[in-house]
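Before a colleague's protein record goes any further, I have to sign it off. Alongside the sequence sits a line of tokens, each denoting a local backbone shape. I want your independent view on whether this chain really folds as the tokens say. Where you disagree with what is written, explain briefly why. This is what I was given:
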Amino acid sequence: MHDWELSRLHWAGKLAITAFLCAVGVGFIFSTMQVSNQHGGISYRTVVESYYGEPVLRDSLDQYWAGAERDLVAAYSKGEAPEGPHAALLRQARSEAHLRYLIDERHQRDLMVNLGIPGVKALVSLAHTHTFGHVAFLFPVSLIVLLTGLPWTWKGLIAAAPHVGVILDYPSAIATRVLAPEFAAVLIFAGALMGLGYLAGFVVTVHDLWFRKPDAAGQSSSSSSSSG
């Protein structure tokens, strides 16, 4: 295993790995800038407003559509003639389940228009591409960290941290959108795990590559194998 230590690499290999880590770091910087520009900063409040909406207005819209659903379903069950601002929904409904679907669709559209928050379908679409993308560039970083000279407990935790962030990232964004604004704190924590996990891996790896001397046991083991 000592032969695989990063500190034993030729300088050209060290340069290649360092350049890769720096490239990932540049990507992190620009993605953070993009998130900040898109949402007007990175704070609990801006994350809540970006995925849940302004809480008072969101709660008001949710209550309005809950009442509308109650009244429309009751009218449909009684077979009453369509009337009121949402009479078109009653005319379109083929069943009570279909009516509830139409109401929810109109509710979600209302939230997107009035609050400017993304729909669940849009978030699922983003999650599909971004989750695989995050894993694709973070896995090599984690693999490199596992080849450093740190104790296994520490390098295992550092290597796993950004992937735990990926696991929590978009699910918490969807939970913020659908369930409650408090999930915004989990979303911020997920982003921090990805960023800090990468940063710790970068520092540990660069130190191993350029400042750590090869393990003496590994050198002697290699010498014995060569003489044998």
